[in-house]
Design goal:
The chain contains eight helices and ten strands. By secondary structure, the chain is an alpha/beta fold. The longest helix is centred in the first third of the chain and has 18 residues. The two termini are about 20 Å apart. Bound molecules: fructose -6-phosphate. Fructose -6-phosphate binds next to loops. The site of fructose -6-phosphate has 14 residues, from loops.
């Protein structure tokens, strides 16, 4: 895992946007995995600004979102489809026919899950998957105890996740109890993964998944088994990491390498 501790949340969003723009520059038809929630909003703002400045185009890319609530009426303002349209898709040149979320309105949710896996497969898999992390260590809606090999399926949200997400609804009673979510196994098949965490509310989960044991009780810890994960943190989210100075040391060497300075981390 490449652990990058940046000076503030703006720097996190700039760096995340850099990674998306570099990929789209090299491969305009890349397949992006996207997330909702509060964390990626600043990244989406930055991508929209860069689009407006003519620095990036999304015209040829395909997108797959991690998850969607089950049980909200079509067009509900807190559905993740509406979230994505409002915060990203309608603000840049995405082709909506290439932008996918799990469909919560198919009569048989199991069929919606199977179709979603099939669509990801047909698109050739995900090149870069963006993730946030729940305060309980979940990624997408894979709550603690989720199989580390799980595929797209219906999951019940924990009380903690419903409380965390209640800020987007009038009351916690309005937060759905179920969602369709990519599985951990699905996420792990992405070529590369970018996880963002901001704020002290994520510090414990970050410590657990980066430095704790690999366990289904901390679903994000599965990322320890993925070869190409970048974790972008602000100082508050990084505040409980024990090996912080080592991560900073390695990151400085890595940056020097990328900037062409002839030194090597092991040199
Ligand atoms: C959203 C998602 C969730 C969030 C997580 C953190 O698509 O899959 O795992 O990333 O709940 O949410 P925020 O960013 O609101 O703290």
């Amino acid at each position: 895992m490449r652990i990058v501790i940046l000076e503030n949340q703006d720097a996190v969003h700039q760096r995340a946007a850099d990674l998306f723009c570099t990929l789209l520059d090299q491969r305009p038809d890349a397949t992006l995995g996207l997330a909702t929630g509060g964390t990626p909003l600043g990244t989406y703002e930055e991508l929209v600004s860069r689009f407006e400045e003519g620095r990036v185009s999304f015209a040829e890319c395909t997108t797959f979102n991690l998850d969607e609530y089950l049980g909200l009426p079509a067009g509900h303002p807190e559905s993740y489809l509406r979230f994505m349209e409002h915060n990203l898709f309608s603000r840049a040149n995405f082709d909506s026919s290439y932008c996918h979320l799990p469909d919560p309105h198919i009569e048989d949710p199991a069929e919606a899950c199977r179709l979603y896996e099939q669509m990801i497969d047909d698109a050739g898999g995900i090149d870069l998957q963006l993730l946030g992390i729940g305060s309980d260590g979940h990624i997408a809606f894979n709550e603690p105890g989720s199989s580390l090999a799980s595929r797209t399926r219906v999951k019940a949200l924990t009380q903690q996740t419903r409380e965390d997400n209640a800020r987007f609804f009038d009351s916690i009673d309005d937060v759905p109890t179920l969602a369709i979510t990519m599985g951990i196994g699905t996420i792990m098949e992405a070529n590369s993964i970018l996880l963002l965490a901001i704020g002290s509310g994520k510090a414990e989960a970050v410590e657990a998944f980066v430095e704790g044991p690999l366990t289904a009780q901390v679903p994000a810890s599965a990322l320890q088994m993925h070869p190409t994960v970048t974790v972008l943190l602000d100082p508050a989210a990084a505040s409980r990491l024990k090996r912080r100075s080592y991560y900073e040391y390695v990151e400085n060497l890595q940056l020097e390498l990328e900037q062409g300075v002839s030194r090597h981390p092991n040199g």
